Amino acid sequence: MTRYIIRRLIQAIPVLFIISVIVFSLIQISPNNPLSAMQNNPNITPEDLLRLEQEYGLNDPLPVKYSKWLGQIVQGNWGDSFVTHRPVLTEIGERLPNTLYLSLIAFVLALIIAIPFGLISAVRQYSLFDHAVTTIAFMGQSIPIFWFGLILIIVFSVNMQNPLAGTALFPHPPPLPMFPGGGMTTLGESPPDPLVDRVWHLVLPVSMLAVFQLAQHVRYMRAGMLDVLKMDYIRTATAKGLRERAVILKHAFKNAAIPLVTIIALEIPALFNGALFTETIFSWPGMGRLFFNSAERGDYTVLMGILMISATLIIFFNLVADIAYAFLDPRIRFD
Amino acid sequence: MAAITSPQTALAKAAQRYDSLTSIAWRHFRKHRPAMLGVGVLSLLVLGAILVPVVTAYDPGKTHILDKYLPPSAEHWMGTDGLGRDLFVRSMDGGRTSLLVGLSAMVLAILIGTTIGAFAGFYGGLTDNALMRLADIMLTIPTLFLAIVLIQLLRAGVIPFLSAGIAPIVFVIAITSWMPTARLVRASYLSIKQKEFIEAARAAGAKNWRLIIRHILPNAISPIIVAATLRIGAAIITEAGLSFLGMGVQPPAATWGNMLKNAQSEIDYAPWTAIFPGLFIFFTVISVNYIGDGLRDALDPHHVE
Amino acid sequence: MSSRKWLVLSLLVLVVIGVACQPAPTPVPTKAAAAPTAVPKPTEPAGPKKGGTLTMVAWQEPEHLNLELGTQTVSSHVYEFFGENLAQVNDKGQWIPELATEIPTTQNGGVSADGKTITYKLRKNVKWHDGSDFTCADLQFTLQVIRTPNNGALDTGIFADLDQVECPDPNTAVLKFKNFYASWIRLFSGIGPIFPKNAGKPEDLKTWAYNRKPNGTGPFKVTEFVTGDHITLEKNTAYWQPDRPYLDKVIVRIVPSSEVAMQLLKNGEADIMWNNTEADMPALEKMTNVKLFDAPQAGGERLILNAVKPGDPADNKTPHPILGDVKVRQAIAFGIDKKTIIDKLLNGKGLPGSSELNVDPYNCTDIKAYAFDQTKAKALLDEAGWKAGSDGIRVKDGNRLRLKYQTTTGNKLREDSQVLIVENMKAIGVEFFIENQPSSLLLGGWAANSPRKKGNYDILMYTTNASIDPHAQMYTYFHSKSIPSPDNQGGINYSRWNDPDTDKLIDQAGSLPDWPARKDLYCKAAARVVDGATHIYLYQRFNLQGFNARVQGWLATPWGGPAWNAADLWVK
């Protein structure tokens, strides 16, 4: 096992290298550069722009740029943003906690709901419960997520008032929206208790994210469980007269969790990348927006930072998933 | 003599098995009520998208600026938009594009995925390793990043015939979504190529490409069909998401995605402009998902006993 | 029809959502509800009230607050809260002193006879937020920062003609110019910030603490900068204007989705939304708690027509096969129904575009806008030899009158007006086909192969506006020396307007210190351009600003942002 892990980790190095080359080249041939926003400003003389392009090394040939970047990275220096001029790791470090805070809560919530619902749905296949769960899951997957978010704001932040406004819990006098239309905390006057405030701000964005993830998780859990239930050994176990519930919990669940483990392993790195749509609609200063803004500005040091950390996480969690399989299913062995 | 199954017999058996699979699957599918409902709704939408822009008195693109923002009425079933275009007709016209995007992105993704998966699974070894690492790398680069960068590149005219209209969107959606199919197909090929009837066909002198296309593919088709169905819905949702970022199919061509994006700012005074395209996306994708679900159940090998 | 059932179903859902969207019946309207708690006293003082918090939402995330490192509009609006300049422009387009005590003129001796020496008297008792005095040395330091090589400072070109700043005493600044510079007033007043001399080493500009916690002289000081979320500014108690500012606190909140920002304006979470557009009008007009301000902006949305044959970036001589003919360009100008666009798409919030220079202090009222006249347009095309083909689109020598029509993607107003203009053109036998691109591409630089830089386009549509001194705009857009080419990659005369008379007028205007004479020359140059119709002015946009009705003291202006008179703002 140890040898397997070491081999996989060594294999990751060339993969990361190739990814960095591909991603770097893609960024460089895309039309955005950190100074493009200034192209249209009559106050900036064309000479100044050219001078800045030289200063920032934007006109260097691609291989030169890449080797400069790589040279920094191997020394542990992620470089500075071309736009804010702050270290890339500072930029990421500021956003990451916000992103994890939002997406982990949504993720865990979605999982807590999805596992039992998926399980029951599979065990009682084609029951009313199953149909209801399936329908709700499909609805979650079929709504354009940004549209859903805006509707949430219109309903809960504009048209519904908070009935507790003016009480100890929400000292702000009415009118106060049922839930705020974005942001992480109350910025204006008479904010609620910090903990209440945070939860209050989480409700809508977490709902938006969780509904979407929930839909996927329920489907995977149900499908995984259905597959396992059809396996011979479960049939045998049932036939031997063990109580159904014991069968499901003891044998089936462990195996049904395999696809779910895969999904979790694949989604954890995505949590790092943030949820662009949710962050945009709910004004949440997370990784998704940092990523999108950096892409628009051609701020390639920041982009490379995000992409390489994300790629490393994906490779790492894939390995974790593979190891987890070995524990869940003793038949899987690594040499 | 009798102990050795002749290649012909094995092939015939395989074909027969395939036929009976199809009919069994259809029997099961018919019983899956939500899926049948999905087929119904989707057929209506497709028919509407094809026919309505042709038969209607309204030109979907023609503006009637004096009739802007009319609420739904007998005249305009779904109201009109900010340029006075009939929203029902425009939704049907947009539906054409959206469904076309969904369908062509699916076809392309499945083609790429199946080809790569088939080669990897059939040849194994170095080919397999190289192709699967490629898939890994693609999976490691965040989809949204890839999509944003590629769309910008394509729009800039890097590949001339993919620079305008729905082509860049279709291409980008496909290129970022073929990987799961490839893995699925590879797994099927890995297991099927070991089967006796393949050995038999090989013994009878079948060439590799023939084995890949004629002999293994029909037996690996079930998961591909399911994946294909679900991809249509995913592609439509992706196009809507790209539209939200201003990168979807560009107006004046209508898609449900860009209609929805544009309608967001009108939601306070002309909510119908946002509600209908949203509902069209919703009903299309949910129908497609149900059909996929029905197909998955119907094609489940456990039915065949 | 079979989809009728479908329709009924969707309508049903519409009804459900519609019901959900109805305002809840219980709560009382905003103002009435606020009244009992907010105003315990029976009588309210008539004048401005002190205290309170103002929340401004902005869709753009400030990258930093150092205007010498970036040109983000949102940062320059935040600057209006915390920073000041020697002079600023008021709502009527007049220069008024801010950190200076008066505007230098030849009459008051501030401007020397040759115009190359400008003397500012600086206001006494002005303190930076950290307590140090504002003096002439700060101007010297600012210039030093701009002049320091490789520190990322933007404005070296604009300051190139300024030789040095002399400080005979702490409250007098003498600007010595190498050459006469017509736009001298913009230096230290609108271009770039004024830095406090203790901001840091000039070579470390990019990493100054100032960039996120700026030290200014303005009515509010930045106390918190939470990246991507908000910036908090608090009242500067030592502000030089007596009894100002009224507000205790200003919060600039980042709301990336403008649709959401509109909802926040509606539910009262936001007092001001930066950058309202014409598309917001119908919704804003329905909001009972929002007051709307508008003022016509300089410049405006226009079509830019390529006078030169697309294809070879180095060739700026060969005329465009279609648009090279001034009659065709004029025909297009006559063929566009600007009024419908303004009435229907801008909801009346706009004026028909007339010329480049259309607001005070340089409103060229003598230049008349092209009237909508399809007959004239058709006659001009006939004269030019373009005759209607079988499908109504004109042809000449076997060539079709077909032109690529591009604007930036993702802008609904532009996309909608394109649809109308395409129809207008069809009516006179001209075919426009739309091929929009993201702004980064369409409006990008030379290296990014931007079509306008390389001359590889037929017709572009976007907005550009001159700043308070029109020289830069007139010179860069219409002088033949500004035509982009491989040797002049920074040039922005995109229509390749090459007219010796225009050049002469602009050059002459730039050499005079006397404003009325300059204005006259610029107007003549602008008239040349209008006649040549390489820029077709569609509409003059309004500076639109929705304010929560509780906010008082704001004046609509073409020139400043939402905080241009921040010290005077107060809330009920």
Describe this entry's structure for a reader.
The complex is a heterotrimer of chains A (335), B (305) and C (572). By secondary structure, chain A is mostly helical. Chain A has helices at residues 2-29, 46-55, 62-74, 88-123, 128-142, 145-159, 194-229, 232-239, 244-273, 276-281, 287-297, 300-328. Chain A has a domain at 95-328: MetI-like fold (Orthogonal Bundle). In chain A, helix 4 (88-123) runs parallel beside helix 12 (300-328). Chain A starts with a helix and ends in a 7-residue tail after the last helix. By secondary structure, chain B is mostly helical. Chain B has eleven helices and no strands. Chain B has helices at residues 7-31, 33-55, 87-123, 125-140, 143-155, 167-175, 179-192, 196-203, 208-244, 256-263, 272-298. Helix content of chain C is 27%, strand content 19%. The model of chain C is unreliable at 1-42 (pLDDT under 50). Chains B and C meet through helix 2 and helix 11 of B and helix 1, helix 5, helix 6, helix 8 and helix 10 of C.
Quick take:
The complex is a heterotrimer of chains A (335), B (305) and C (572). Chain A has 335 residues and is mostly helical.
Topology:
The complex is a heterotrimer of chains A (335), B (305) and C (572).
Chain A: H1 2-29, H2 46-55, H3 62-74, H4 88-123, H5 128-142, H6 145-159, H7 194-229, H8 232-239, H9 244-273, H10 276-281, H11 287-297, H12 300-328
Helix pairs in contact in A: 1-12, 4-5, 4-7, 4-9, 4-12, 5-7, 6-7, 7-9, 9-12, 11-12
Chain B: H1 7-31, H2 33-55, H3 87-123, H4 125-140, H5 143-155, H6 167-175, H7 179-192, H8 196-203, H9 208-244, H10 256-263, H11 272-298
Helix pairs in contact in B: 1-8, 1-11, 2-3, 2-11, 3-4, 3-6, 3-7, 3-9, 3-11, 5-6, 7-9, 9-10, 9-11, 10-11
Chain C: H1 4-21, H2 30-38, E1 53-58, H3 73-82, E2 87-89, E3 95-97, E4 117-121, H4 136-147, E5 162-169, E6 172-177, E7 220-226, E8 230-235, E9 249-254, H5 258-267, E10 272-273, H6 281-286, E11 290-296, E12 300-305, H7 326-335, H8 338-345, E13 350-352, H9 374-383, E14 387-388, E15 394-396, E16 399-400, E17 402-407, H10 412-427, E18 431-434, H11 439-442, H12 451-454, E19 459-464, H13 471-478, H14 500-509, H15 515-532, E20 535-548, E21 551-552, E22 570-571
Helix pairs in contact in C: 7-9, 13-14, 14-15
